[in-house]
Amino acid sequence: MLFNSIEFGVFLILVFFLYWFVFNKNLRLQNGLILIASYFFYGWWDWRFLTLILLSSLLDYIIGIGIHHSSKKVERKILLWVSVLVNIGILGFFKYFNFFLDTLYDVNPGLQSILGFNSLSIILPVGISFYTFQTLSYSFDVYNKKIRPTYDFLSFGAYVSFFPQLVAGPIERASHLLPQFQKGRTFCYPNAINGLRQILWGLVKKVVIANQCAKYADTIFDGSDLYGGSTLLVGAVFFAFQIYGDFSGYSDIAIGTARLFGFDLTRNFAFPYFSRDIAEFWRRWHISLSTWFRDYVYIPLGGSRMDKTETIRNIFVIFLLSGLWHGANWTFIAWGFLNALYFLPYLLLKQNRKNLGVVAENSFLPSLKDVINILSTFFLICLAWIFFRSQNLTQAIGILDRIFSLSVLEIPEFRPWYLFLDIIIFMIIEWLGRRSSFAIENLSLNIGKPLRYAFYYIIILIIFWKGGSEEPFIYFQF
To answer: Per the CB 3.0–4.6 Å rule, which of 262, 283, 385, 387 could disulfide with 335?
Structure first.
C-alpha cells in the first residue's frame, strides 16, 4: 500500500476516524488499533511476511525482559547475542544469501559443483532493514541500561510495526517512540494541521520531483552506453533529486501521518543538499540510520578516540556497513567506500564539526563561499550516487569515465526545461524554509491566510496533474 495511492488515503481516513472517535477513551484499544492497522498495512503487500515482524517483536520483547532480570553479565551477553544473531540472520538470509553465494562462487568456481546448488529465488520483504534495526536498537538499549524493558507487548508490538514508518523509516529508538505508546494521547488540532502540511510537502517531493526526475534518470542510466558525459552528468543530477525527493518525501509523509495520531517521529532529513561539506551532508541525510551506526557500531568500536589507524578503520567500517545495508551489490559497497574517502579528510583534520548551523542563518542569500561549498559538495554527492544507481561497477566506472572526458562539454541530449524549472522552484521553497523542520512548516508566519490557502490549492492541483501512475518508493527495496 503506497502513500501516494487512493487505497492508503481511504485506509488513513478510516483508521483516523476509529482512533479518535471510537477508541479515543481507551489507550489499549488505540494501541491495539494501531497494531492491527500496521499489520494490515504491511500485509497488503504480502501477508506471509507478517510472521517475520511478529517473530522479531516477540524475540526482542522476551529478550529485553530476560536481559533486565539477569544479574550475570555472561547471561546478559548471551541473550543480546541471540537477539543480534537471529535478527541479523533473518535479514542476512533474505537480503544477502544470494549475494554472498555468488561472490563465493566467483572466488572459487569449484565450490558450485561441491555444494550442488545455485542462487535461490528469494523475495525480499519490504522494509526488513528498517524494522530489524529498530527492534535491535531496543535490545541494545536495554542491555546498556539506557532504558527499562516494557512488559506491555501491545505497545511494544505497535512500536516495532507502526505503519507510518514501518517500511522506510525513520528508524526509531525505543527511548523516543515507545514511551509515546504508553501514555494517553489527546487530539491536537495545530499539530494535526502541521502534519497535513508535512504530508502535502512530502507528496510534492515524491510526485512532482522524484517521479518526474525518475523518468529521465532511468532512461539515461538504463542506456548509459549511448550517451556522452554531459548527458550522463545530467542523469546523475536527476537521480540525486529523485532519491532525495523520493526518500525524504516518504519521511515527510510518515512524520506528518504520525502527527495525525499524536506521535512525534524523529527527523530524518535536514535539507542535505544545502550542505557545505560531506561531514555536514551526513549529519543531514538519513539521520536515523547515520546516528544508528554511530551509536551502535562506531562508538562501541572506539569512535575517533582511538589512534589514527583505528579511527580510519572505524570510519570505513560504518560507511561500508551503510553501503551494504542498502543492498546486496558491490555498487553499494563502492558507494560507501567513496563516501568514507570523502569524509576522512574532514575527520583527520578535525574539520568535521565545522558547519553545524543552518547555512546563511542570519541572511537571505548565501555568501559566495557558501555557494561554492554547496555546489562542490553536491557535485561530489552526485558522483557517489552514480555507484548507488548503477547496475554494476563496470557501468558506474564507464559513466564516470565519460563524465571526466571532453564529452562533458557537449550539449546534453535531454533538456527538459519544465523539469529544470520545477527543481529550481522546489529548491527556492526549500531554501526559504531551511530554518524549519520541513520547507513549508512556517508558511503561515510568512504570508497571509488568502495567499497561504491559494498556495495549498495550487500544490494540490499540481500533485494531481503530475500524479499519473502510483510509483513505489525507492527505499521499499531496502
So the answer is: 387
| Residue 95 main-chain phi, psi, to 5 deg | -100, -30
Q: Are 159 and 172 in contact (CB under 8 A)?
A: yes
Q: Read out DSSP for 307-369?
A: -HHHHHHHHHHHHHHHHHHH-SSHHHHHHHHHHHHHHHHHHHTT-TTS--S-TTTTSSS--HH
Identify whether the C-beta of residue 159 lies closer than 8 Å to the C-beta of residue 177. yes
Distance CA 26, CA 333 (A): 48
Alpha-carbon gap, residue 131 to 25, rounded angstroms: 29
Q: Are 442 and 436 in contact (CB under 8 A)?
A: yes
- Tens digits of residue pLDDT in 259-296: 999 999 999 999 999 999 999 999 999 999 999 999 99
Q: Which parts of the chain have pLDDT scores under 70? A: 110-120, 468-469, 477-478
Per-residue pLDDT tens digits for 303-337: 888 888 999 999 999 999 999 999 889 999 999 99
Q: What angle do CA 418, 421, 423 make, to 5 degrees?
A: 115
DSSP state, residue 434: T
Would you call 326 a catalytic residue per the annotation?
Answer: yes
Residue with cell 531496543: 138
Look at residues 150, 135, 183, 137 and name the one whose alpha carbon lies nearest to residue 68. Answer: 150
Neighbours of 173 (CB within 10 A): 21
Residue 465 C-alpha from the chain's centroid: 27
Q: How many helices (H) and strands (E) does the chain have?
A: 20, 0
Kindly report the backbone phi and psi dihedral angles of residue 472, in degrees, each rounded to the nearest multiple of 5, phi listed first: -65, 160
CA atoms within 13 A on the CB side of 83: 29
Which of 343, 341, 342, 321 lies closest to 332 in space, CA to CA? Answer: 321
Please provide the DSSP assignment of 136-157 as one string.
HHHHHHHHTTSSPPPS-HHHHH
Model confidence, pTM: 0.93
SS3 246: helix
* CA-wise closest residue to 208 among 428, 470, 467: 467
CA 324 – CA 184 distance, rounded (Å): 39
Catalytic residue, chosen from 68, 69, 176, 326, is 326
- Rg, the chain, Cα only: 23
* Nearest-angstrom CA–CA distance, 57 and 67: 15
